[in-house]
């Protein structure tokens, strides 16, 4: 037994790692293994707290004992070794084809698996369970396996995106979603607004839209205890928080045993939903520790990082309609959006799209023979005459434009229409379609 933990917080720390691993090992080996690390656990008793006092002697190549089995169980649960429980994840293959011959012996295969785990999580990759690695393993995380499609190398060079694509995507942009149930931790309306916020973040950077609907929907959201029928049971508080499946499965499941909150205590629902919907649209885990798609939960993270945005746009492309307040965008079809009576830089503003939608702009009322949408900002002084401004498309256009001067509209793809040089609250104006 080579790994020794010392310090005042050793008890919860070891319990944190093992309590997560217990359920996962149980999930990994099913009934075929009656023993396992449950015997070395004193009980979950996990509390969020500091981990700074822990003193760890690294677990490494050549070590033997139940800690090695715990490590193996953890890596197995997240896709590094064969695991029948992970086959609901369509197309999933383990990083290593073979199980360890002796799960209590830290051999070279386990060392390589641990090195890949460290690479996948932005840790120094020395192949030993040092304090930093153990601390990360003790954190709650997403149940989605690492290296989903195999041991493809993570690119960890500076300036290069760490996102990894699954190769699977939705073959349409307008997606529907529904709730199988709601958590009992929050009022249903609060749960739905957090889910809406999470969807909005992905819709803001891609052509995707998410609309709540009845009947059979593309994305199905639910909160479940333990075994909930997809072969991937939840493990109780902490450990695995949620999981979601690649397109076009649509299942997005949250562990009801967690304390779901909206205020940063407990587990932040918005943040976890934002991460899970990344999988729902086809993103894998990112090694970028700042990314929403980083596997571990380290507290609220409610906005997409550029790594996440790059990943989503690599799958679905950028929004098809973009806005520029500093001249036309290269390579796009652009329409000048101006109001000559407004002195606030409304002379170099363009609406640009990847395909030619035939936009026409009018600052003198709707254009006859076209389908026109009024573009206005109520707080503009009347002298700036935004009341008679219209954006028009041909009558047979596929676009159904809707204007909002109070934020994006649920269920639609929206482009922010902003002129930073104009003091009249243009920041919350959106053109939706
Ligand atoms: Zn995940
Ligand atoms: Zn599930």
From TrEMBL:
Give the residue range of the signal peptide: 1-23
Peptidase metallopeptidase domain segment(s): 166-318
The transmembrane segments are none
Top-rank taxon, per record: Bacteria
Name a biological process GO annotation.
Answer: extracellular matrix organization
Q: What Gene Ontology cellular component terms go with this record?
A: extracellular matrix
One short Pfam family name for this protein? Answer: Peptidase_M10
Its name, as the record gives it, is Peptidase metallopeptidase domain-containing protein
């Amino acid at each position: 037994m080579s790994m020794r933990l010392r310090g005042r917080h050793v008890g919860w720390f070891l319990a944190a790692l093992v309590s997560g691993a217990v359920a996962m090992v149980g999930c990994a080996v099913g009934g075929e293994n009656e023993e396992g690390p449950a015997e070395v656990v004193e009980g979950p008793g996990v509390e969020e707290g500091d981990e700074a006092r822990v003193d760890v002697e690294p677990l490494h190549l050549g070590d033997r004992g139940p800690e090695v089995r715990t490590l193996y169980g953890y890596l197995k649960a997240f896709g590094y070794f064969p695991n029948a429980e992970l086959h609901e994840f369509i197309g999933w293959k383990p990083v290593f084809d073979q199980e360890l011959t002796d799960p209590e012996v830290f051999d070279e295969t386990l060392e390589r698996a641990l090195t890949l785990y460290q690479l996948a999580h932005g840790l120094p990759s020395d192949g030993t369970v040092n304090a930093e690695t153990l601390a990360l393993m003790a954190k709650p995380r997403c149940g989605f396996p690492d290296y989903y499609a195999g041991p493809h190398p993570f690119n960890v060079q500076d300036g290069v995106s760490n996102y990894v694509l699954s190769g699977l995507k939705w073959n349409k942009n307008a997606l529907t979603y529904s709730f199988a149930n709601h958590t009992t931790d929050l009022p249903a309306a609060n749960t739905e607004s957090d889910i809406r916020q999470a969807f909005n973040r992905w819709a803001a950077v891609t052509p995707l839209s998410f609309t709540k609907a009845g009947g059979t929907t593309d994305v199905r959201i639910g909160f479940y205890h333990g075994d909930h029928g997809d072969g991937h049971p939840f493990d109780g508080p902490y450990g695995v928080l949620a999981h979601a499946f690649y397109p076009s499965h649509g299942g997005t499941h949250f562990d009801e045993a967690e304390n779901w909150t909206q205020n940063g205590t407990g587990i932040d629902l918005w943040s976890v939903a934002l991460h899970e919907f990344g999988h729902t649209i086809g993103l894998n885990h990112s090694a970028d520790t700042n990314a929403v798609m980083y596997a571990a939960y380290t507290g609220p993270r409610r906005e997409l990082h550029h790594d996440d945005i790059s990943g989503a746009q690599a799958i679905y492309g950028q929004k098809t309609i973009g806005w520029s307040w500093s001249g036309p965008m290269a390579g796009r079809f652009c329409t000048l959006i101006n109001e000559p009576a407004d002195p606030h830089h409304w002379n170099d503003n363009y609406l640009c799209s990847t395909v030619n939608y035939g936009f026409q702009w009018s600052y003198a009322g709707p254009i006859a023979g076209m389908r026109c949408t009024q573009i206005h900002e109520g707080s503009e002084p009347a002298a700036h005459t935004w009341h008679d401004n219209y954006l028009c498309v041909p009558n047979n256009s596929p676009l159904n434009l809707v204007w909002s001067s109070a934020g994006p509209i649920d269920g639609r793809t929206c482009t922010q229409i902003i002129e930073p040089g104009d003091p009249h609250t243009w920041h919350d104006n959106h053109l939706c379609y």
